[in-house]
Amino acid sequence: MAIRESFTYTDMDLWLNEKRVTEIECLVPDLTGVARGKILPRGKFTQERGMRIPEAVLGMTVTGNYPTEDAGYDRAISSTDRDMVLKADPTTITMVPWATDPTAQVIHDCYFADGRLVDFAPRSVLRRVLKLYADRGWKPVVAPELEFYLTAKNSDPDLPLKPPIGRSGRAETSRQVYSIDAVNEFDPLFEDIYDYCDMMNLDVDTLIHEIGAGQMEINFLHGEPLGLADKVFFFKRTLREAALKHDMYATFMAKPMAGEPGSAMHVHQSVVDIKTGKNIFSSDDGSASPLFKNYIGGLQRYMPSAMAIVAPYVNSYRRIVRHTAAPINIQWGMDNRTVGFRVPESGVQDRRVENRIIGADANPYLALAVTLACGYLGMVDQEDPTPMTTDSAYDHKIELPQGLPQALQLLRGEDRLRTVLGDRFIDVYAAIKDLEHQEFMTVISPWEREHLLLHV
Question: Out of 95, 117, 220, 448, which residue is the most buried by the measure of CB atoms under 10 Å away?
Answer without folding.
Answer: 220
